[in-house]
Amino acid sequence: MSDAKRYPIPSARHRVEETIRRSRFVTTLGHASSVDEARAFIAAVSSEFSDATHNCWAYVVGPPGDTSRVGMTDGGEPHGTAGRPMLDVLLHSGIGDVVAVVTRYYGGVKLGKGGLVRAYGGGVRAAVESCSTEELVATTGLELVAAYADAEHIRRLLADHEAEIIEESFGERVRLTVRLPEERAEPFSEAARGVTKGRVEIAVASEGQGDTR
Question: What CATH class is the domain 6-131?
Fold first, then answer.
């Protein structure tokens, strides 16, 4: 399983198509950060191809390989020939927060169970291998209150810790709200305390969230 704090996700909806023994297979791959988003994606693609013989799907919500929030369906194909091979490919793809729908227009030639497994799994594999990705980074917010001189020292730490200022205010002291990767929060806080000799006040400003970079 990949690091839950950082992992690749699909950057855009992606589609590949293949004809196998006269059956047309259309694989649509996309990003889903929640089960609801995955279901909405599936519903949209299924509606787009409402005249198809089958719309089979699978999704993995969370880091690559995480099985805590997964789903699949054979969409009317024989049990185990569509949803399971699709899900297996997604789980081993190295991509997280991903949903796939494979649409089939039956061409009159039966593929057999082995042929169906290869067709559905192969469609997802082709989509995964050719899709564009971006990195999802779990972030958090910190609020720092410091003297003006100390604030300048803190600013010099930002780049090394992938932190950015999202809000600042000025009064008797400077108040900085920064956003940074979750795994950098503690090292950044320690560095800020070090350069200010412990004079800075630090508090969590917001709950963790997902950010793409």
Answer: alpha beta
